[in-house]
Amino acid sequence: MLVIEQETYDAIVAHARRDHPDEACGVVAGAEGSDRATRFIPMLNAAMSPTFYEFDSGDLLRLYKEMGERDEEPVVIYHSHTATEAYPSRTDINLAQEPGAHYVLVSTRDGADDPAYDGPVEFRSYRIVDGEVTEEEVRVVGSYGESPEGED
Amino acid sequence: MAIELRVPTILRTYTGGAKAVTGDGATLAEFIDNVNGNHPGLKERIVEGEPEELRRFVNVYVNDEDVRFTGGLKTEVKDGDVVVVLPAVAGG
Prior knowledge:
The complex is a heterodimer of chains A (152) and B (92).
Chain A: E1 2-5, H1 6-19, E2 25-31, E3 39-43, E4 53-54, H2 57-69, E5 72-81, H3 90-95, E6 102-107, E7 123-129, E8 132-136, E9 138-141
Parallel strand pairs in A: 1-9, 5-6
Antiparallel strand pairs in A: 2-3, 2-5, 6-7, 7-8
Chain B: E1 3-6, E2 20-23, H1 28-38, E3 47-48, E4 53-54, E5 58-62, E6 65-66, E7 82-87, E8 90-91
Parallel strand pairs in B: 1-7
Antiparallel strand pairs in B: 1-2, 3-4, 5-6, 5-7
């Protein structure tokens, strides 16, 4: 299960809507081993494409060095699909190389990018390990401090 | 002195969990071969094809420079250098 704070959830959705029709991508880092996604880091999609995303190689190095210095890891790796459902594509599965991360997908299809759109936006989370995709529940909480285990 | 390789999480199965290992060589290709001698299997996760090339979705940096801009596997390395391997974060 992915437990994520409302503010982070909203920031990911806002990024996806803002970058539509290109795919948006980024990371939410957190303390190693904590499984808490606390630091929202939107990344540039170097591919600038509606069907592909890739972190810029220089940005990638800076990101990982910074996380290393802070004893963080990528707890969430997110990106958007702009014309299809929020489910990992074959390319997503083949290229997923962080087995410990929650892979979050947001879909901005069917007008969900429109500033006037006020409905729900598809937001789903997966583990992708050795080519195996496992969807998991997403629980949005006000803040990690106020969500003791077992309480909704 | 030696050359240090920083190993990404997904490849630490080849290094017994170590985040960094060391090796020698005059070029990146030699260095990867040398490290692979102690950690078999590591090389084929970084390099592919004949002639050998870096995998498209693996990034390698020598002293913070992406080697795609410095000669790829022919990039010269020396004692004290730090080689970082990072899988691309990419998809469709």
